[in-house]
Amino acid sequence: MSDRLLSVAVILIAVLALVACAPEPPAVEEAPPPPPAPPPTVYNIGEVDIVAEEPGFTSLNVSLLGVKFGDVTNDLLDVLGDQEGDTQNWPDHYVSYYRDGGLIIHTFKNTGEIRKIEILTRLASGLASTQLQAWLEDGDVDAMRAFMGQEEDVAVGDTGGTEYVYDSRGIRFVAYEEQNGIRFSFYRN
Q1: What are the two backbone dihedrals, phi and then psi, of residue 26, each rounded to the nearest 5 degrees?
Q2: What is the pLDDT of residue 189?
Q3: I need a labelling partner for 29 at 20 to 30 A (CA). Which of 37, 58, 137, 170 fits?
Q4: pLDDT tens, 147-173?
């Protein structure tokens, strides 16, 4: 019995020695992660006809008066000029009016970063795109559809206007009772 036990012990020691001497498995090299996508080109819509230059534009392609998403409003006060009235305190963001009420800026409460930029009829002449100007001035839905395509939805917004929704592009065309607006949203509505 002890011979059998000794034989098993010798075999186990030999197996363990062989396993311990075996070469390490080759290290698996992980491929480096792909580089992040470059940020989208941003066009100043006061200088560039974005509808002609970038027909598939989204809200992330847009800046106006040097204001774009990710900016902090306190850093832009020189560009924006004097605020009209008091800042409104909404449940999840602040709303401020500039340029004689023709530019509305929505900011995140916790960071002050711009969340939405809305341009109203008063600033129509400041846009390079005749199609965007025309929407702001006359609110022609058929003309809007000619350059934007069919909207994803039509909704009544929280500010009372009829919104023609292009949320996949971060854009809403808004027909208010006495004026029109184009709302660019950083995060889809």
Answers
A1: -60, 140
A2: 42
A3: 37
A4: 999 999 999 877 788 999 999 999 999
